[in-house]
Amino acid sequence: MVFLLEYKEYWLFTFFITAGFLLGFIFNKIIINQLKTITHSTSWKIDDILLDIVGKYIRIWIIIGGFFLAIDTLPPFLIKLSDSIHKVLLVFFVLSIAFAIANLITALIKNYYTSQTGVHNTELASYLIKGLIITLAGIMLLQTFGISVTPILGALGVGSLAIGLALKDTLTNLFGGIQILLTNQLKTGDFIQLQSGREGTIKDITLRNTTLLDRSNNTIVVPNSELSIATIVNYSMPSTILRVKVDCGVGYNSDLEMVERLVLETAKEVIENTEDGFKGFSPRMRFHKFNDFSIDFTVIMRSKSFPGTHRLRHNFIKLIKKRFDENNIEIPFPIRTLINKS
Prior knowledge:
The chain is 59% helix and 14% strand. The protein has ten helices and eight strands. The strands form two sheets. It has a five-stranded antiparallel sheet with strand order 4-3-2-1-5. Strands 6-8-7 form a three-stranded antiparallel sheet, covered by helices on one side. It is α+β, with helices and mostly antiparallel strands.
């Protein structure tokens, strides 16, 4: 007992710190796990998001709370450092709250965006939100410590001009990415065709560039500044359902009524039996030209995705050729006659 009284300034300090770590561990391993069992049984995703993010930081806040309590019981050789330790703990506490709020907001936005569009949100929005919240937390800390932010903001204004000139291309790409994000005309998961003719699926929009994955599984990296002003064909907006047009021709001696019937039956069969075909769509077929060697027509089908248009067209061409051959319908081709006068 005498030993405890003699060294109480040491064991109280140790007790509070140990208690903080122990309570944080118990809260994380027991209480959080029990709450996760309850939230996972519900269909509402918001409670899972709140628990996953806030639960990680509550353990940190409990440990920081233990250190705050321990400050009042610092050993004699650390008393002079109490003010500095308090400020360090305050910085950790405020920044942890800022990170928790930033992660929570970005997770909620991502969940809403995914539920509305079916694709994951881009990282650009997350970076911007986190940067804004952490900057505000930093300004609050400076004001708390009695540091005027006005001179700092003035210095940043002058410095930002030099930085802006040095990082002109980077900033142009950054604001290009913000423009892409705000207009909502391009998003991850969209299949687009660039002005250069390259095409692919948008995988991510970052601070500097947009990444596409083409059908050969190659990565295409496009600077945001170029993408924001380029002419782009978005095959996923306003709908992923696309028209598939196939042109063909038959000989002048063909029975056009039979041709029309065979074409429509074949197109319907191809739509129903092809994975990407838009089921239930009634194909259309129109004769449109008396050509030199044939009567030309166009058949129109529907595909559920851009890659599916190629499969649909491929299957139709194979099957209609077979049907025409079975019914003696000719697909004419140009014939050239050479006259030798010698």
